[in-house]
Amino acid sequence: MSYADERFIQNCKDILAHGTWDTDQAVRPRWDDGSPAHTIKLFGVVNRYDLRKEFPVQTIRKMAFKSSLDELLWIWQKKSNNIHDLNSHIWDAWADENGSIGKAYGYQLGVKHVYPEGEFDQVDRVLYDLKHNPASRRIITSIYNHHDLYEMALYPCAWSMTFNVTGRTLNAILNQRSQDMLTANGWNVMQYAALVHMLARVSGLEAGELVHVIADAHIYDRHVPIVEEIIARKPYEAPTLWMDPAVDDFYAFTRDSLKLEGYQCHPLDVKIPVAV
Ligand SMILES: Nc1nc(=O)c2c([nH]1)NC[C@@H]1CN(c3ccc(C(=O)N[C@@H](CCC(=O)O)C(=O)O)cc3)CN21
Ligand SMILES: O=c1ccn([C@H]2C[C@H](O)[C@@H](COP(=O)(O)O)O2)c(=O)[nH]1
Fold it and tell me: Mean pLDDT of residues grouped by 10 in the chain (276 residues)?
């Protein structure tokens, strides 16, 4: 059984058995018919994925690995906030007439800041420190910038990464304030696992652990029957991650540079509605 399946199944069982519904509260997200999108949630879910053992991808439903990598590169490599630079439609509902999602995600990572060594954006600062200061305990990105929140279509959910080099191993903590378990838990885990693998490669390190800290782990009301159905399925073993051996520059990765070899999975036979 893929470890990502094991964690997802256990997290969802815990949420459904011990979670709290917000049905009696006023909530922000809406379904496409205008009705409020309520959730059942647990606070403070933490999952540790050892990337040396296997790549964390769910098999109980087909995961769109290439699309998730495309979104990750949109944010971390293109540092874009415009859906015209994205090869999927997952952000369309939050974009304005010019395609912008405001000062969120890629925009924040691309802003330059002054340091003693000169000006860097947050991604280049991480790349610099992994090479030149691997013993640093200050290798952190943060895009939850209060100063700009009023200009973001959606406040960042996966908002901070902490990178830590132990020996020659790159470990990371992904801090996430809010997690739509069905739409994006597997999506966020596999894309940030891919990020750790890419950063390790270009820094001459080995990918180690990804620790995923989720403050509010929730299942939307209309997702409950789908979750119940997919967590009852029999998982497959995890596939193997292939990375193009020729790439040693973070900015040279494309969505074809990483592949999942031998990925066996159950089909995703329903369209998952996304609350906006
Ligand atoms: N309610 C909500 N949940 C989310 O997970 C979420 C938001 N809102 N808003 C911003 C982004 C958009 N996200 C999304 C939205 C849709 C898919 C999605 O439809 N995924 C499909 C197909 C992807 C494709 O290949 O185009 C999947 O099968 O994973 C994934 C992430 C994650 N985020
Ligand atoms: O990468 C992402 C982006 C978004 N989400 C989910 C988490 C929530 O269900 C919504 C955001 O709504 P808030 O009311 O702002 O929390 O989007 C995700 O899981 N992963």
Answer: 97 98 98 98 98 98 98 98 98 98 98 97 98 98 98 97 98 98 98 98 98 99 98 98 98 98 96 97
Determine whether the annotation assigns residue 220 to a binding site: yes
Which residue's CA is the nearest one to ligand 1's atom 24?
Answer: 67
Report which DSSP code applies to 200: H
184 CA from centroid of ligand 2 (Å): 8
Could you give the residue numbers annotated as active site? 157
The structure tokens 């495309």 sit at 70
End-to-end, the C-alpha distance of the chain in Å comes to: 33
- CA–CA separation, 247 vs 245, rounded Å? 6
Alpha carbon distance 55, 125 (integer Å): 26
ipTM score of complex: 0.98
Query: At which residue do the structure tokens 């159950």 appear?
Result: 266
CA 208 – ligand 2 centroid, Å: 26
